Amino acid sequence: MTAPPQESAPTQTGDRVFSGISRAAGLVILAALAGVFIFLSIEGIPGLFQDEGAYKGNGNFLGYVDTLLFGTVLSATIAVLVAVPLAFGIALVVSHYAPTWIAGPVASIIDLLAAVPSVVFGLWGINVFAPKMVPIYVWLEENLGFLPFFKAPVNPVGTTILTAGLVLAIMILPIITAISREVFNQTPVLHEEAALALGATRWEMIRLAVFPYARSGMVSAVMLGLGRALGETMAVAMVLSGAGGISFNLIGTSNPTSIAANIASQYKENTPATLHILIATGLVLFIVTFLVNFAARWIVARNERKLTR
């Protein structure tokens, strides 16, 4: 009986080299994250204990950062609520409904949106999109003004938290769409054909075969888009006229700004106390983003465990 053939030395060497490079790349990423956290901690902790005057009338750091954190989360939430259904719909059309001659160009156009710089979105948002939204905001106030989200007075130039959230939605749309499209395309063809052979409609096949298989990838796509929305700087700083406190009014004149946009607009003051405070807010944003990604990994791992049972 002949012994099974052994792997060749070049193959073994190549595997070891690839494994070493991959491990080194992972360690470099961890070291970079640790370095960022250490820098933010060292430079930001003094920002927690500055004089009251340095917090621009908010008393302390907590009073200063809570409005910024609220604006960050609110704008990112609006972006995700708008972008996710559109992204999943576009990804399904491209992967399962549209013919190839339509799906290819549509996918390319969506992917090209990811290459547009954020400052371009900001210029478009403040000069074109925001003025076009004013009549819509007036209509919302006249017909839905009894809701706390659409109370008067309406922002006359359209630079509201809702406008910023919609611009962010357009920015994160290609990220969520591209990842979702790839995940949908990886669904085993035999699963789809089996569902169709049993009499399922196209939508039933997607709901019963595609979505369960792609659930973890869909969650990852949403969380990546949310991370982009949380950390976006220039587009929000240019579109949003943030000068108010915590408010759920999406179309009013008093809007909370985001942490990243506040850092970009206030960094020019360049006083030691201001720098420490801004870096401390950056540390808060870093922690929030880390927790979002950690939650995403936990959800993905939980879904994968359910699928393997």
What does this structure look like?
The protein is mostly helical. The protein has one domain: Orthogonal Bundle (MetI-like fold), CATH 1.10.3720.10. The chain has ten helices and no strands. The chain has helices spanning 9-44, 61-97, 100-113, 118-144, 161-185, 189-197, 202-231, 234-239, 259-266, 272-308. Helix 2 (61-97) packs antiparallel against helix 3 (100-113), helix 5 packs across helix 7 and helix 6 packs across helix 7. The radius of gyration is 24 Å and the shape is globular.
Summarize the helices and strands and which ones pair or pack.
Elements: H1 9-44, H2 61-97, H3 100-113, H4 118-144, H5 161-185, H6 189-197, H7 202-231, H8 234-239, H9 259-266, H10 272-308
Helix pairs in contact: 1-10, 2-3, 2-5, 2-7, 2-10, 3-5, 4-5, 5-7, 6-7, 7-10, 9-10
